[in-house]
Amino acid sequence: MMARFYGYIDKVFGFRRLAALLTDSRSAPAIPTAAIFGTAFAVFARPRVPSGDSVGRVYAPMHRAIPG
């Protein structure tokens, strides 16, 4: 799913080219700046869907409170 998303934003916005233009002050980075930005972008761009465990923790007390 993320590969399709990255393909889309690269095709429409030139994301890969724009990310390659990013720089920072590190003299010899082990991880490229574009890779760090791409990862951070993916974290904030994806929908915030709760996991099944989170949903279960929220609804379990409500389920126990309902009589019968």
Structure explained in plain terms:
The protein has a domain at 1-22 and 30-49. It has 68 residues and is mostly helical. 66% of the residues lie in helices and 0% in strands. The model has no long low-confidence stretch (mean pLDDT 83).
Number of helices: 4
Structural class, by secondary structure, is mainly alpha
Helical amount among residues, as a percent range? 55-70%
**DSSP summary, beta strand count:** 0
Write the H/E string, N to C. Answer: HHHH
Strand content: under 5%
| Cα gyration radius (Å) | 20 Å
Cα distance spanning the termini = 42 Å
Q: Which descriptor suits the 3D outline?
A: elongated
Q: Note poorly predicted spans.
A: none
Which terms would index this structure?
68 residues; mainly alpha; single chain; elongated
List the helices and strands and how they pair.
Layout lengths: L1 H12 L1 H6 L12 H13 L6 H14 L3
What's the gist of this structure?
This protein has 68 residues and is an all-alpha fold.
